[in-house]
Please model this.
Amino acid sequence: MAELIGKDFTPPDIRAKVTGAAKYAEDFRRDGMLFCRLLTSPMPHARVLSVDASQALEMPGVVGILLPEDVPEQPGAANNILTYEPHFVGEPILAVAATSETIAQDAIENIRLELEPLEFCTDPLESLRPDGPNARSDGNTVVPREGVREIKWTANDFEDAAEGRLPMGQPGAEWSYGNIEDGFAESAVVVEEDFVTASTSHHSMEPRTAMAYWENGKCYLHASSQSQSLPLPGAAAYIGIEPEDLVFIAEYCGGGFGSKGGAYPIMSIPAHMSRKVGRPVLMRISRAEEYFLGSARAGFQGHLKMGFREDGRLLAVDLYIVQENGPNQGFGDMGSAASAVTITYTPLSMRYRGISVLTNTPPRGAQRGPGQNQMHTAIEPLLDKAARELGVDPLDLRKINAPTQESRYGGNQGPITSAYLREALELGAEQFDWEARRARSGDRNGPKVTGVGVGQAFHSAGSSGFDGLLRISPDGRLHIHTGVGNLGTYSYASTSRVAAEVLGYNWDNCEIHRGDSSRGLPWNNGQYGSNTSFTMTRTNYAAGMDALGKLKDIAALELGGTSDDYDIANEEVFNRRNPSRRLTYAKAATLAIELGGRHSGNELPEDINPMTRRAAEQLAGTGLIGVARDNIEQTGMVPALAAGFIEIQLDIETGAVEIVDYLGVADCGVVLHPQSLANQVRGGAVMGFGMAASERHVYDPRWGLPGSVGLHQAKPPSYLDVPSEMDWAAVELEDPNNPVGVKGIGEPLMGCAAAALLCAISDALGGHYFNRIPVVADMIINAAGGQPQSYRPLQVNTQ
Amino acid sequence: MKDMMAGFELHQPADLETALDLLNRYGEDAWRLAGGYDSLDWLKNRSRGASAVIDLEGLEELKGIRETADGLEIGAMTTLTEIENSSIVQQRFGLLAEAASQVASPQIRNAGTIGGNLAQDTRCWYYRYGVNCYRAGGNSCYAAAPEAMNREHAIFGASRCVAVTPSDCAPAVVALDAEIVIQSRRGERIVQANDFFMQPSVDIRRMTVLEPEELLTAIRLPNEWSGASFYFEKVADRNVWDFPLVNVAASFRMEGSTVEEARIVCGAVQCIPRRIEEAERLVRGQLRSEQVAESAGVAAVEGAEPLNYNHFKVPLMENLVKRAVRGV
Model:
């Protein structure tokens, strides 16, 4: 093996991207197409008492209006399509379709809304007070598996907390293992801090535009999506049709970072409008609207206590997280955060408590390392504080507590597949010359101080049970059908190469089919959660092995002997004992069609998903079909682990931080596609630097208005804020649960960079722990000048 | 927040006279379009009606850098990139080249003009969001409220409004004692840069003295400050497409190692570029020593009145003035 794996190649969609030929959702046009615009809530929480659209509907060019009663109501606290009770500024109330976008917006301005303002909340702790405001009429928290509830903490809970410290009342979720009391009692050093991590918007470069039309009973939806097959049933449900009646087209995606992983409600608006007015409809979402509709990472207000033995071993962790969840269902960041602690730092005992509190700010959703990365930004600088008190090098403290293959994961302490974080730390230390750089820590050059940091991060990175589907056509070419999606990482392509590898194909003779559900695509997991590399190498391996078996079967039937007598080389199947008895793949494909049955996809495995079945039926009889469910054994959670190393210069007079050097090291098993991994390391680092030190999420608490609507207000890092060169390395130790040894890696590459930068900033300031992210210039200036910070402890949405 | 442009009439005059005629005709309804980056946001937000957009791109007489007997004249439609790269500006008035090079991003500087940069509106996020504040014609200031998020706002000169000047070039032209050339159908008038910017206590609805029918046509940099010792520094959250938290522009005319004359100006601390005459007085006739720098820094922030979230601007401004005097 390994003709294709671990080699750079040019993914087939790159040329279209760099030349501008790639068509995203908003680039499509249909005859008679209308444009629709949304009327969104100007208030953080309100009830619409009346809508008067009479004037708007009389305007020339205005064709139709879509109201909440025209679309399916969403259950519980699920995100709405349209609503008469908006829960955040920017939530869509209705849509208008017109012959031009300008006319649609003009019409929106002529609609009279009567709104009743309702109580709202932008700070979870305020909502937990006995008389605090609720973000929703039906409660203020989302309890896992239960839904929206009202939980109020008692006055005593608040009084018990010291001034400015996190109160810790009734949680909505909790677990523990081991005995933390004993752990803390046996600890030589105990560190304890509150922390705040800011919510951050996703800033997807492509706003979530959608275009839809109906033809012969089917709905055609061009959507902005990270994933291909997985969102289809959800999108169909939002539209109110069966999955087989939806053609879902998402060939290119301009970034999602978790916010476009599954179906989302507003992608159905043009489909509903199109059905109502009988014409194709394009709904372009603007940059500003994307800040309301594009979701955000949940923010944390937390408390963290860690106890260490004299030798640095972490004995006990006590963690409490109050999660700012937006007004709706949100995402399970806080639980993932707690689980990340168990595997990255392997405490011998731990207690976790958390509560997810609703606020009238944009809905929260998964964002690259949801929960894990917030956790790492809070815990890693605190590890450094402990290291200082223990007199242990920060790198050594991390190595002492790094996971082994026997380490366990989560509250239930389940098994894992492989973990090589210690090896990543060692590799990184050597490549970064940690000792020499560490010696420079604290060096002064005028107002500039050198800071050095190391950070770590984790994300679970793989799943199983999805399907692989491929076809060898009578011309001998290999057609790999993939339904994973095209977030922009090119992993749809690198994982498809595993099928080619199994069959010994020259890559030039392979073609990937994707991007449009009418092309016969299998049921695959979404392109999120760093899972694609692990999950899709397994499905493509399974389909490849199925096809390999069929090639040998066909050869045995045609040329005699048993299939075990046959092997493959150069796109031919041959008899090992008599190599002159051979079939080209082209011939085998032709024979597969003649033989029919399972060889040509006319008989299909029982255990494949109905979507894969429909796709395979579409291909049946056109060649040799490889189709299989991934039934390869998975014995545990798949950890993706990463370590980041950084050197900075911090100017104590201006608060400016310059990143001098960065190195990211991945524990991702075997490297599938080196160029792509390098880009993940660098891209993840840039996003991590933003999370740590620049990205803002500001809400005015008096009016509930957003102050970070737009790239220049939200401030993700730009190309001149990061070094032009950043280094990468990979441990390259195989994961035993993957047939080619691969694991995912995308998410922790962000968290380790964020954590490393925060550790370096603290290092430059002599170990100052900021208790919040992002650490921006004003905080550094205040800390360096010994003046108090402007915000209250635990205050949120300030930066 | 509309984020969707409304229709408007587009005028593309080919000469200054026609442009001034159009401004005279449309008055308050006219929108002057220079580089267009700030205009784009305003037009998309629909919070200001602009029924007649007057595109200044065709006015060749407003472009370019010319030497005159008295100094340098820079047309208002000269791009920031051109100023940043101009060898004569670099050699004689390096302060302005440096300030221009710090504006927004390289791409924006390719289109953005010196006139647009000086005349740009404030970035107060409440005002930009579209609330009905004093500056927008209403009767309150959202940014000065007790709970308001006002990290970027004023520490000096608040008068109902606490917005600040966002320009990087504005403090530089004040520190160079530039003249601003303004034309209208009535003729030409010259305003000292120091007097070009509008205090909210005088007129809360605009950032400059420009009347609706007037056009900023040129900036004149006097020989008096040619080749002086300059210092410019901008502190912002990002290195690209960001506005200053505080910036400083300073000119020092030296005699040997002694400061003969100085102009020290900070941006983003007040609605207008804040000239710090007390600091200038302290450095005049002195060496640019650490001690002098310290005293200038302290003098610079005398009387500062921070809001709830911008206390940091006081030490930041002090440090920047100190660095300007130190020259390092």
User: Anything to note?
Assistant: The first strand of chain A starts at residue 34 and ends at 40.
